[in-house]
Amino acid sequence: MAENQQQAGNPAQWSSRFAFIMAAVGSAVGLGNIWKFPYIVGENGGGAFVLVYLACIAVIGLPIMIAEVMLGRRAGHSPIGTMAAVARAEGRSRGWQGVGIMVTLTAFIILSFYSVIAGWTLPYILRAVGGGFSGIAAEESGALFDGLLASPGQLLLWHTVVMGLTVLVSAGGVRHGLERVITKLMPALFVLLLILVGYAMTSGHFGEAVTFLFKPDFSALTAEAVLVALGHAFFTLSLASGAMMAYGAYLKKEVPIVRTSITVALLDTGVALLAGLAIFPIVFAYGLAPGEGPGLIFVTLPVAFGQMPGGSFFATLFFVLLLFAAWTSSISMLESLVSYLNEKGVSRVKAAVGGGLVAWLVGITTVLSLNDWSGFAPLGMFERFEGKTLFDLYDYLTANIMMPLGALLTAIFVGWKMKPEHSAVELGRWHRLWFPVVRYLSPIAVLIVFYFNLR
Ligand code: TRP
After folding, report:
1. Which domain, by its residues, includes 149?
2. Is 333 in the pocket of ligand 1 (CB under 6 A)?
3. Residue 434: which CATH number?
4. Which atom of ligand 1 sits closest to the CA of residue 241?
5. Most-buried pick from 46, 270, 312, 352 (CB within 10 A)?
């Protein structure tokens, strides 16, 4: 009977390789691809930075993603349960469970502030629908954005909506919640993105954007930029935050992990590059600057939309796309914790609501960091953290410490603590290529970044 149920469809397993790919790409493709990637390319001078980033994805990001999916599928538990189970099976210290705890915590902290940023898309969608960007000048656009950030009430409202949407899907379970929603949102996202790129091609400045993104000028490349590229490679693939491990646990045994992970990494990278190809042509077409930093999407782009024919329509599509991307990522951030609580006997609904509620509460400190508490730097007595708000600290702690550390420990575990024959069972003939990379190259690369980041 249980066997039969398994055949007919285990509700705690993806129904197909396609479903896993959509979920993993949904996790990977987020604000990181559409908001952050274009602006860090802009800040770091374009093509050369893109090349370094692609190398980081291929050499460090992908091998670690494969490691995480492999661990998840091998044990079939939450990240915490998976690390405990594999460590036990390999005769290693129980302490390895700590890696599971850390990555779960990382995802949770990221969720708390990610939901606040994702919330920004909602007032932008509403404004775009109402034609509120048409003819808008740069100062006006800047003032709108600043006004949003200055309003705790508004930020809290949108943060609440995003967290609510996240909890709603998570509570539905793997097959009936996550898979059902994500397999619709992601194809929609691809269509929206292609429409926007198609439109950008007609702007007359597409070639300029292609040159900017792909023509490497190594003189513009700094050591700092290399670190940014590697840090972003982890972030964009949702590594060291349990997401890929949790999703790997729902993967059927017959699905080839390496090929599937390559597909996920390619799609994630493809979306980031396409986002650049959608955004930069219109930024250039209206004589705006590509290196505006975080305001590129929320300040510069609305100005461009406001001048173009059909701008309200395309602005709406763009911000809906951004919302979908952030939503499917948020769902996966909650999954590490929800799957763990679920394992401990808490129902999915209770786990999702409880986890979401706590992340929402922590998120309020990010909301306030942007306005009322913007002068509050709790670690300001250390030079490194001078002027850093709570929000800045969450970002710093996760991106510069917890994610590299999680990735390093994961690489050490699979490269040195787990028997290679065991990982080979999961990975098949690709194992020979993957193993030396994850054993030597990945940990050394992460250590180098760590050193430079903390120096
Ligand atoms: N990959 C997501 C993005 O590019 C961000 C992210 C980082 C993430 N860590 C995560 C998403 C963990 C889900 C789970 O926006």
Report:
1. 14-454
2. yes
3. 1.10.4160
4. 12
5. 352
